[in-house]
Amino acid sequence: MWKWTFVKPSETVYDGDMDMIAQNGPSGNGPIGKKNFSRAECPRPAPPVLSEEELAHGMALALEEARLAASEGEVPAGCVILMPPPPPATIRNPTLFRVLSRAHNRTEGLGDPTAHAEVQAISQAAATLGDWRLDGTVLFVTKEPCPMCAGAIVLARIPLVVYGMADPRRGGVSVFNILNHPGLNHRAEVRAGVMEEPCRELFLSFFRDARNGK
Length: 214
What we know:
Number of helices: 6
Distance between the termini: 61 Å
């Protein structure tokens, strides 16, 4: 027997495959008394629009976390999730952004292959808000998210992702296109290359020191 999971009446967007089933029924014809909605009819709110100053502020915080990772012998990736002030403010002080979470790689320290900066930051931000949907937030990370982290970003409904250096071998954006894959029920806007040089230099220097036995 099907156990229906209906979206709240006030919600106008899909929240995953189960919500799509709740809207459309297992056959796609729709349960009794429910209207079928196409994705085009259920637009999500536009992602936050940030100034260059705001982008630099968020990435600077992520770099602080990346440096902590390096000091602990972890691959230096750092991540923060911020909540910008609500519109219609056009001039905002980036220091007033609410910091929902701060995290860095801890795979070695925790012995956990999933303990990437982004995954930890998403879990912390969800706990801070008391909601797994991180609508209206911005995720800053020093290195392009891997496929696992990109998948977590999609599940958390984060609307804007900002990263520093690209990962041309296994990037969840540039290689696998997970954040904008047409088959997924959420797509995130991406700003790449923010403070790219300091992010790359920290990453490269970490591995230089590792090769030299430092």
